[in-house]
Automatic annotation (TrEMBL):
Family: Belongs to the flagella basal body rod proteins family.
UniProt xrefs under InterPro entries: Flagellar_FlgE/F/G, Flg_bb/hook_C_dom, FlgE/F/G-like, LlgE_F_G-like_D1
Protein name according to UniProt: Flagellar hook-basal body complex protein
Residues of the Flagellar hook protein FlgE/F/G-like D1 domain: 78-137
Keywords carried by this UniProt record: Bacterial flagellum, Cell projection, Cilium, Flagellum
Species this chain originates from: Ramlibacter pinisoli
Metal-binding found in the keyword field: no
Chief site of localization: other
């Protein structure tokens, strides 16, 4: 294949990857705590120096937190700032920022999909579906008939919140879960603040994604014209050679 056609093809493949990423982001504008996908590309100058085209790189998550909305529900929890809740799945530890929790039949604190929410000391078990959770993630259970002052006496557990570097690679597992490809660290109190009675909104900006969509489509159209123009030029050259022979 001619180098210019190869460059055009690879550029179109990169644009298709960008369009797929934008489509995923736009489809999850209303998904709680969804983190938009960002396609990282190798630097143009570095690729040209190496004699290679500029290709779409790996997909990363934009870890910037979304805005918080109040729900008033005791088991709705959001993180103000960086950090992820740890949960246990059949595939091992996973992490989420979707804090729409509930208490299952076994008294465990679980996600909406039934995955056990992990505390600093393991699974969290409660006797009430109306606990108090402070900004450090400490959970104060409320047995039937107790007062608020009694409820705040002793914490029964503390939510396990981990910190992940912004550039760390992750793998989406679906249902708002990700698997970390690096070892996480427990987040400090100043790095992540827990907000009870709130859920985090998606951090997708629809207007920004539409701009990305238009840019990718226009770039793909330009590359398509380059490929068609080069093909036409080759055709003309071949016809002229045939006329000369």
């Amino acid at each position: 294949m001619a180098p210019i056609l190869q460059l055009t093809l690879q550029g179109l493949q990169a644009d298709m990857a960008r369009l797929d990423q934008v489509a995923i982001n736009l489809a999850n504008v209303q998904t709680p705590a969804f983190k938009r996908e960002v396609t990282a590309s190798a630097g143009f100058a570095r690729r040209i120096d190496a004699g290679a085209p500029v290709l779409a790189g790996g997909v990363h998550l934009d870890a910037r937190p979304g805005t918080l909305r109040s729900t008033g529900r005791a088991l709705d929890v959001a993180l103000a700032g960086p950090g992820w809740f740890e949960v246990r799945t059949d595939r091992g530890p996973a992490y989420t920022r979707q804090g729409e929790f509930r208490v299952d039949a076994l008294g465990r604190l679980v996600t909406a999909q039934g995955h056990a929410v992990m505390g600093v000391g393991g699974e969290i078990r409660l006797t009430s579906s109306n606990p108090v959770i402070d900004t450090q993630g400490r959970i104060f259970d409320a047995a039937p008939g107790t007062t608020t002052s009694r409820r705040l006496a002793d914490a029964v557990a503390q939510l396990k919140v981990v910190q992940v570097p912004a550039s760390a690679p992750v793998e989406r597992l679906g249902q708002g879960l990700v698997r970390l490809l690096v070892e996480p660290e427990t987040a400090g109190a100043l790095q992540a603040e827990v907000r009870q009675g709130h859920l985090e909104n998606s951090n997708v900006d629809p207007a920004r994604e539409m701009v990305q969509l238009v840019q990718a489509m226009r770039h793909a159209e330009t590359l398509q014209k380059v490929g068609l123009g080069y093909d036409e030029m080759l055709g003309n050259a071949i016809r002229r050679l045939g006329e000369m022979s």
